Amino acid sequence: MSAPDPPVEARDLDLGLAATLAGAAVNDDVLARLQDAGFAGLRLSHGYFFQHLVAGPQPVGTLAERLAVTQQAVSKTAGELERLGYVERTRDPGDARVRRVGLTARGRAAVEAARAARSEVDAELRARLGSARVEAAAELLRDLLAERGRMPDIARRRVRPAG
Fold first, then answer.
1. How confident is the model at residue 162 (pLDDT cuts 50, 70, 90)?
2. Backbone angles phi, psi at 151, to 5 degrees
3. Residue 58 forms beta bridges with which residues?
4. Minimum mean pLDDT among 61-70, 79-88, 131-140: which range?
5. What is the 3-state secondary structure (H, E, C) of the chain?
């Protein structure tokens, strides 16, 4: 029997890994708050889907292109979210062959609840860790995103899940 791996020390985390794990911890907290607020069944990946529906219903093909997935993957996710009451699928008024996906009132409420939960988490972190430290960390991460050329996609809501 081999010895267990030694524990990872916080000082051993590089910037990318620390940012990824910190982001995951915040996202877990936000999802837990959404569950507690009655928005069951939501996953982090649904947020990437929702970001494309905030401005209004979108054709399945457009969603597939923006998310860099197949139309079948979009239809599957839309079906799941439709069963949960967050989105609805309708026929395009200009082309009955085209299906559009849009947020329902419950979906819009989930988006607002997620925004509120993120604000709450941010305020709690600022209270515990200090506003200046949290702002400095956020500024560093925004600068990193800009340096890596990611801000244009973020500005256009073209962020896709990693992987």
1. low
2. -65, -40
3. 101
4. 61-70
5. CCCCCCCCCHHHCCHHHHHHHHHHHHHHHHHHHHHHCCCCCCCHHHHHHHCCCCCCCEEHHHHHHHHCCCHHHHHHHHHHHHHCCCEEEEEECCEEEEEEEEECHHHHHHHHHHHHHHHHHHHHHHHHHCHHHHHHHHHHHHHHHHHCCCHHHHHCCCCCCCC
Residue with tokens 């400095």: 136
Q: Residue 27 carries which side chain, given as an amino acid letter?
A: N
> What's domain 14-155's architecture?
Orthogonal Bundle (1.10)
48-60: string of b/e by CB count within 10 Å (b at 16+)?
bbbbbbeeebbbb
List the Cα angle 160/48/30 in 5-degree steps.
125
Which residue type occupies 117? A
- pLDDT tens figures, 92-129: 888 888 899 999 999 999 999 999 999 999 999 999 99
